[in-house]
Design brief:
single chain, mainly alpha, 79% helix
Length: 599
């Protein structure tokens, strides 16, 4: 029997340890929630944990590293190394933690995009899709698909980009993230633009603009309308293009694309001076390098536009200088193209999937016996755990029932004792005495001397009992009067801020020694008040005991809050809980006060 109990205890301990993972620090949880909307704030919070994170368990340290990568990515801080993400991937792959692994693979893709390794980025994003097949984190799945689509779009694989963006859109709708929906609609419009499908482009851009306006996001409204303006410019519908730009506004960061659309519009509508102004601004506002390592299109477009204007105006030497710079940027952009590399990686990945499936089928036959043994052992362990848990549950339920019955007995004893010391008990005794006197008068006319003696003895006993009760009440009243005249009572009464207490004490602060002195005085005045209270409720805390003592001396809740350095709401909650714990039924703070005052 002892061996069985030991086995059950061991199994339960393993189960509880497995289920009792320590939660991540609160600061990390807040940083995670801020990463998407306020990444800079998230980075500040994570920086605060930098020195203490080494003392946390390995799981917490790895998740902290993942949050650092996530927050930097959302803050548009380019990743310059893959060392950190490799540590994160190694840990989650080893633990087979699908929830965190999917996110880790996604940010691995983001890291390698920043490092200019498009094939590696695509491989990790495809792994993220595979791991998240059963995930209900629709927002993350949508982001993974969307990033693959953007990667295809940048590499000019437009047909595949469109398919991936549409897949992302389905998951984004499930996530109900309005901002992501706008971006997905815009990306689908981008893909259709590159595929020269005017009607579909117009439909999705318009839908994205309506959604951005609906959620009242000024940045999104501006971003979408800027692209709509570019779309209409390519169609030659300059009026609609200018109208869209009126809705958009100059972005505070990366304004080059806005200037590009505006410069080209002015050039194509014959407003050369304005066009030259914005082409010139592109040279100073355009970024120097794109995320693939090549020169950006912004400056290339700026030099091309300035070259055309200079040539039209007969400034041929200047036009030639601009054209040379334009050709330099064009050459750099051409070298940066990884289209063929991405196609090869995608084909290789599909091949790896087929090979993986073949190996999986071959392994199934070899692993069947092992799985049967593991499954059988798991079922037995689960049954043992369920059986043990059932026994423990019934024992605890029985113990709670016994404890509740004992508490009810104690409460009944207390109520009986209070009744036998009450004015009501005296009054009832006096009624009985009057009835006995009447009986004695009748008994005197009879010859039953024994009955007469019994009635006389009962009457004397009742009179003596009443006298004892009244004596106790007088003693109690004198004790209470003496207590209220004591300095310790005046000190508490004064600091509690009671009426007319300004001149009764010079005490400024209650000390632990004062609490001890008050409790001694209370126990002397009210017949070991705290000991009887602890007998009724053995697990009463020190704070709860202080509340009860103050209730006993008629300090109101506001005064109790002041003396115990808690809020009034906290004191109210404690009084309510004390009644419920001792009486095993719902109650109010006032019921507890009444109980303590008569205790």
């Amino acid at each position: 029997m002892k061996i069985i109990k030991l086995l059950l205890f061991t199994l339960l301990s393993i189960c509880f340890c497995a289920c009792g993972n320590k939660p991540y620090p609160r600061t990390m949880q807040v940083a995670d929630s801020l990463a998407n909307s306020c990444p800079d704030s998230a980075l500040v919070l994570l920086e605060q944990l930098k020195n203490s994170i080494a003392k946390e368990p390995e799981a917490t340290q790895i998740y902290y590293q993942l949050l650092i990568i996530k927050a930097k990515d959302k803050a548009c801080i380019a990743h310059t190394s893959d060392s950190l993400i490799k540590q994160v991937l190694s840990y989650y792959e080893d633990k087979k933690d699908k929830e965190h692994l999917a996110e880790a693979y996604y940010y691995a893709g983001r890291v390698y995009i920043d490092l200019g390794d498009a094939p590696q980025a695509l491989a990790y994003l495809q792994k993220a899709i595979e791991v998240s097949k059963e995930s209900t984190n629709y927002r993350l799945v949508s982001m993974i698909y969307n990033q693959i689509g953007v990667l295809y779009l940048y590499q000019r694989i437009y047909d595949k980009a469109l398919d991936v963006f549409k897949g992302a859109y389905q998951y984004t709708k499930l996530s109900r993230d309005s901002t992501l929906i706008v971006y997905n609609l815009r990306n689908i419009g981008r893909a259709y633009t590159q595929l020269n499908n005017v009607d579909s482009t117009s439909y999705y851009y318009k839908k994205a603009g309506q959604m951005a306006k609906k959620i009242n996001d000024a940045h999104l409204v501006s971003t979408v309308n800027q692209e709509i303006a570019s779309f209409y410019r390519h169609l030659g519908e300059y009026g609609k293009a200018f109208a869209a730009l009126q809705v958009a506004h100059t972005p505070k960061s990366h304004p080059a694309s806005y200037y590009t659309v505006l410069a080209n519009l002015y050039y194509e509508t014959g407003k050369i001076d304005s066009a030259q102004y914005y082409y010139t601004k592109l040279l100073s506002t355009g970024n120097s390098y794109d995320n693939q390592g090549g020169y950006y299109y912004d400056k290339q477009g700026g030099y091309k536009g300035l070259s055309k204007i200079a040539r039209q105006q007969g400034r041929l030497a200047e036009a030639l200088s601009y054209m040379d710079k334009y050709l330099a940027y064009t050459d750099s952009l051409q070298k940066a193209s990884d289209t063929e590399a991405v196609r090869k990686v995608n084909a290789l990945y599909n091949y790896q999937l087929r090979e993986k499936e073949n190996h999986r089928l071959e392994d199934i036959a070899q692993k069947q016996k092992v799985w049967i043994v593991v499954l059988s052992a798991s079922i037995i362990i689960i049954l043992i755990i369920i059986f043990a848990s059932s026994i423990i549950y019934r024992q605890r339920k029985k113990q709670r029932k016994i404890q509740a019955e004992r508490q009810q007995e104690k409460l009944k004893e207390i109520a009986d004792e209070q009744y036998r010391s009450s004015r009501q008990f005296i009054a009832e005794n006096e009624k009985r005495i009057e009835k006995l006197k009447e009986k004695l008068q009748n008994t005197e006319s009879q010859k039953d001397e024994l009955e007469k003696n019994l009635q006389e003895a009962e009457k004397e006993l009742l009179e003596l009992t009443n006298k004892q009760i009244e004596t106790k009440q007088k003693i109690q009243a004198l004790s209470e009067t003496a207590f209220r005249e004591s300095q310790i009572y005046k000190d508490f009464y004064h600091i509690a801020g009671m009426p007319n207490s300004e001149n009764i004490s010079e005490k400024q602060k209650i000390t632990p020694k004062d609490w001890e002195e008050l409790i001694v005085a209370i126990n002397r005045t009210y017949n070991n008040f705290t000991r009887h209270l602890q007998t009724l409720y053995p697990i009463i805390s020190k704070h709860e005991l202080h509340i009860c003592v103050l209730i006993k001396i008629a300090i109101p809740p506001m005064g109790i809050a002041k003396l115990t350095a808690h809020s009034k709401q906290a004191i109210t909650s404690s009084r309510k809980k004390l009644y419920e714990k001792t009486h095993n039924q719902p109650g109010t703070p006032d019921l507890w006060d009444h109980f303590i005052q008569n205790f």
